[in-house]
Amino acid sequence: MSAKKINSALISVYSKDGLEEIVRELNRLGVKIYSTGGTQGFIEGLGIEVETVEKLTSYPSILDGRVKTLHPKVFGGLLARREESHLAQLKEYGIPEIDLVIVDLYPFEETVAKTKDEDAIVEKIDIGGISLIRAAAKNYRDVVVVPSKEEYELFFKLLKEKRGSSELEDRRELARRAFKVSSNYDIAIFNYFNEGTTDISFKYSIHRSDILRYGENPHQSGVFFGDFDKLFDKLSGKEISFNNMVDIDAAVQVMREFKKDEPTFAILKHTNTCGLATRPTMQEAWDAALACDNVSAFGGIFVSNGSLDLATAQSIHPLFYEVLIAPDFEEDALELLRKKKKRILLKIKEFKLRKRSFRSLLNGVVEQDADLKIETEADLHLATKKAPAESEINDLLFANICVKHLKSNAIALVKDKQLIGMGCGQPSRVDSLKQAIAKAQAFGFDLKGGVMASDAFFPFPDCVEIADKVGITAVIQPGGSIRDGESIGYCDKNEMAMVLTGTRHFKH
User: Fold this and answer.
1) Are 356 and 367 in contact (CB under 8 A)?
2) Sign of torsion, CA 480 484 485 491?
3) Domain map of the chain by residue range?
4) 49, 145, 41, 138: which is closest to 102 by C-alpha?
5) Cα distances (Å, whole numbers) of residue 227 to 42, 230, 326
6) CATH class of 230-348
7) What is the pLDDT of residues 85-99, one digit of tens each?
8) 378-500 architecture in CATH?
9) Fold match between domain 230-348 and domain 378-500
10) Torsion of CA 207, 67, 113, 116, to 10 degrees
11) How far apart are CA 74 and CA 153, in angstroms?
12) Which residues are annotated as catalytic?
């Protein structure tokens, strides 16, 4: 028979929020309660009788509370199968059956996030609690386990509906959740101790997940594993899809490169930046970004590094876009933008990214350092006789950021801190350059005096030759080709400047 009545319970929790109604209901049902430490005091404070674990085991809590529940009289009562041979042993040794365990572990991850004090962190590694969870979950055919405060509400509902009994499927589901809790906990501890070592292990545990509107295409389902609300406040709009999420990530990666005191606006389409500009005001930055390619902006992702005012919002509002991201919105600007109910408005809390990135490939996963390198003027090595002017240096650094966030092969053309042409995703770098030039000319930009950035080295001088013929005066690239001299030589003969960064920003 799968239905089992709860006659006894062991409760040992860190978080008491939501516990009171459970304890009162257990007491009403006549369940015998065992507890220890702070949980025992909490239950007694409710005026409910509780037997201490110390009385059960005839052993005190020792080692500053490190050892309380680790005893055969506790684990015997949890692990015993409710069958003749096991029950006979319980009787022989005076061990009571324990039908329910409620545990909430020490907050290890929260402690790691708050302090660097290793002693404090180590003390938050729960031993007794995790052992209780695993033991009860292993014996789910006979024992109910509530492994964290996240399950308090579910268990209370079960307790009320089934009047202190549980079915096998209930116990198995709670056991599943218990092993999820224990595996997450162990991975968090491992990653803490593994940080900075040479041990290459791929172990991640993400507690939160959100069902996406759909996957890459509408016939595919999608799930985001992460805490979206930790990064953003969603102020308006429809549910987020897989593609929205990928584009939002790309937008955040672009905008984290720019200083808060330099008003910058970016427009992305399919993760590629098609509009990007820095100007004295956000309104001007938006106008310049849109001018880069006002056709591709349709249905794009918009992102700024500063607050959006009403004037900027009025310029944005008539356009169709998927997502608009900003650190803040002035009240009247937000009121206007919210009128289009489906448009997703996100207030970003900080432009911060993980230091490691990974993706699924074949039958496994590849992981790497995230590309967080941001070049400065000190990183530029002059390769040509002619040095770039100060204004060109600023544009070269801007172009280097632009090209870093385009799919390879990638070329970015920039003038006055505005992306005036871009080419990407082509099998030939020459094709990408021709694409960038064609786009710049199609939108009426004068390329004379502009600069060019390449995400990887030039294997031949053809790109600098083509760029020279349309008026490009300075080039930034990583260098590293055995034929670098040919591109540099062409620049010297034609009074172009070229700087090398020594860092490739290739992006598949």
Assistant:
1) yes
2) negative
3) 4-194, 230-348, 378-500
4) 145
5) 32, 5, 18
6) alpha beta
7) 898 988 988 889 999
8) 3-Layer(aba) Sandwich (3.40)
9) yes
10) -150
11) 25
12) 138, 270
